Amino acid sequence: MRPFESEGQGLSDTNWDLFLRDMALCLSTYQDRGPAVVWPERAHTVLPRLYATDGREPADREWRPVRPGTGAHQLAADLGHVMGYPVEAYERLLPAGTVLPFGRVGADLLLFPLRGGARCRVENDGRADHRSGEVELRLRAGEMCYVPARHSCTLSEAVAPCELLLLVLHATP
Which pLDDT value is given to residue 46? Predict the structure, then answer.
């Protein structure tokens, strides 16, 4: 039983497992290749259980680690178990009209809008031999964007506040 199931927020193992499977397939396919967008199966069933469930609002000025016992914390733990490396989860609110740049952070990232949406632009590291290009799209709740370590990313044009979940993947190079 997952921690949030005991609080009356039950999530079937099937929904959770299908969602997790699609995340793992995306990483297995694109990790160390280039950016990717995936629409995990059962996302709209799973994502509401990932919201800040401990009664606090997401941070609106900086990334804050998710608390143990939340669905987002469990997602990071389960994804780390499946992939075989540590995964950390952070939350943040992107206020409407705000631009949020990510430099090349040295780790792969998965960005999830849990509520709302924003324009997402991922750019490669500029190396001529690097095959991956740029991606620009409107990222909405239920979709995730994989950002490789050597890429930068900018979120912008949120029409309404956008609740974000960030998973930092500590894969061995």
Answer: 85
Cβ atoms of 111 and 145 within 8 Å: the answer is yes
Tokens of 21: 């499977």
C-alpha pair distances (Å), 1 with each of 9, 72, 167: 11, 15, 22
Residue type, 94: L
Quote the CA–CA distance of 66 and 48 in Å, as a whole number. Answer: 15
Hey, what's the torsion of the CAs at 90, 22, 18, 47, to 10 degrees?
30
The backbone region for 88, taken as left when phi is positive above 0, alpha when psi lies in -120 to 50, beta otherwise, is: beta
Q: What is the pTM for the complete model shown?
A: 0.84
Domains of the chain: 3-169 (2.60.120.10)
Return d(Cα 156, Cα 21) in angstroms, integer. 29
Would you say 166 and 109 are in contact if contact means Cβ atoms under 8 Å apart? yes
| Residues of the chain under the 50 pLDDT cut | 1-11, 128-129
CA–CA distance, 29 with 16 (Å, rounded to integer): 20
Helix, strand, coil distribution of the chain in percent, nearest 5:
25, 30, 45
Give the residues across from 73 on adjacent strands: none
